[in-house]
Amino acid sequence: MNSKKLKIIVIGSSGTIGKEVANNLEESGHEVIRVSRSSGDFNADIQDKNSLEKLFESVGSFDAVANAAGDVKFDSLESFTDADFEFSFGSKLMGQINIVRTALPFINDNGSFTLISGILTDEPIAGGILASTVNSAIEGFVKASSYELPRNIRINCISPTVLEEAKSYHPFFPGFIPVEAWKVAKAYEKSIAGVFNGRIIKV
User: Fold this and answer.
1) Rounded Cα distance, 65 and 59, in Å
2) What is the pTM of this model?
3) Which regions span the lipid bilayer (predicted)?
4) Distances (CA, A) of 157 to 57, 59, 66, 87
5) Most buried residue, 56, 175, 185, 195, by most Cβ within 10 Å?
6) pLDDT digits (tens, 9 = 90+) for 3-19
7) Cα–chain center distance at 36
8) In a 3-state reduction of DSSP, which class is residue 74?
């Protein structure tokens, strides 16, 4: 059983999921470094690779990265612009891929990455084409890269449904059963402290 105290970077720590992840990991006895665009222990923007490089250089060695950041645009297929695609791919997809790429020189042996996708991979909604596309791509990246990460480093992905706390989104998810953010945070803990690799953990 892994009861070791880990040094964990939580990116997106000011958001609903990220805050719960950081709090839960701290309560479990781990050292948590909170990162967001404008608050926390360090600031970084996952759309900016240079920003990520500066973050990991500043933190130094660590055991895990838990990411809860990444945005996509919602609209109809006919209304999406090139800029909408560029933003969504640059944020939630390439942003997360670049977290892994830039963190590799700094993460300790036997470390782990936990990224985020979402239920729209499997259950699309109206206006969610970009979210479904990006989520599917990040899950593919996680599955494939799990075979190639060096030094026994693991990678998993959390796929939550709509959050109970995100009341404004509920009308866009008719018939979906919302999940509380603390349950999503427990899935992150399972990914980080467990032995899973290349898994899509659905919540």
Assistant:
1) 12
2) 0.95
3) none
4) 24, 23, 10, 21
5) 185
6) 689 999 999 999 999 99
7) 12
8) coil
Longest dimension (CA), the chain: 51
DSSP-derived pairing of the beta strands 31-36 and 7-11:
parallel
Give the pLDDT of residue 3: 67
How many other C-beta atoms can be found within 10 angstroms of the C-beta atom of residue 87? 16
Q: Please, are residues 199 and 35 in contact by the beta-carbon 8 Å criterion? A: no
- Enclosing domain of residue 11: 7-202
* 11: in domain: yes
Q: Which residue has the tokens 């640059």?
A: 90
Residue 200 has pLDDT above 60, yes or no: yes
What's the rounded Cα separation, in Å, for the pair 80 and 130?
A: 9
Quote the pLDDT of residue 4. Answer: 87
Residue 1 lies in a domain: no
CATH number, residue 87: 3.40.50.720
Contact 115, 103 (CB under 8 A): no
> DSSP E strands: which ranges in 78-199?
107-116, 154-159
The tokens 């009308």 sit on which residue?
Answer: 171
Q: How far is the CA of 113 from the CAs of 13, 44, 96, 106, 172, in angstroms?
A: 15, 17, 10, 12, 30
Q: Would you state the structure tokens that stand for residue 24, as one six-digit string?
A: 């839960």
Q: Which uninterrupted H or E stretch holds 35?
A: strand 31-36
Q: At 2, phi and psi to the nearest 5?
A: -90, 100
